[in-house]
Amino acid sequence: MNVSILGKNGLKTVNLNRRKASREKCLNCAGWSLKAVTTCEFTDCPLYAFRSGKGKQNAKARAKAIRNYCLWCMNGQRAEVSKCTCPDCPLFPYRQGGIDRSAEIDPTQKKTAYRSGFGSYLMATRTTGH
Ligand code: SF4
């Protein structure tokens, strides 16, 4: 799924899956320092085991880790996770266990655009400057 996420130098378009999403979130958390992700000491973080983005991963455990991370991010409020307004977060499409495609970029469009929701608002403001 092609989405626009926050990278070291601003928004970037990536072909995302859960493995990459976890890795990207850890890089974001560590200020995009590869070393800081590798040497992370927050062993109680739900994403800890998936931070390298490499190796054999249990897909169910990874999906659960993402849900748990989002729950932590929203102070344990499930309703707030579903209402999350951060489509630039790499975990956004996977925050509820399934796949939310609302932030997906239409590959047939030359310019990047979100299908709906807060992303369209962001794109509109980026284009018009309002
Ligand atoms: S998708 Fe939303 S709830 Fe999940 S970590 Fe990102 S900002 Fe937090």
Descriptive report:
With about 130 residues, the chain is α+β, with helices and mostly antiparallel strands. It has one domain (about 1-130). The protein has 5 helices and 2 strands. It has helices at about 20-30, 35-40, 60-75, 80, 120-130; strands at about 1-5, 10-15. A two-stranded antiparallel sheet has the order 1-2. A hairpin with a 2-residue loop joins β1 (about 1-5) and β2 (about 10-15). Residues about 110-130 have low confidence and may be disordered. It binds iron/sulfur cluster. Iron/sulfur cluster binds near residues 70, 73, 86, 89 and 95.
What does this entry show, briefly?
This protein is α+β, with helices and mostly antiparallel strands. It is 37% helix and 9% strand.
Average pLDDT figure: 87
Cα shape: globular
SSE string, helix = H, strand = E?
Answer: EEHHHHH
Oligomer: single chain
The poorly predicted ranges are 110-130
Distance between the termini: 29 Å
Total domains? 1
| Portion in beta strands | 5-15%
Number of helices: 5
Rg, Cα atoms, Å = 15 Å
Percent of residues in helical segments?
25-40%
Topology:
Blueprint: E1 2-7, E2 10-15, H1 18-29, H2 34-38, H3 59-73, H4 78-82, H5 118-128
Antiparallel strand pairs: 1-2
Residues 69-70, 73-74, 81, 84, 86, 89, 91-92, 95 line the site of iron/sulfur cluster.
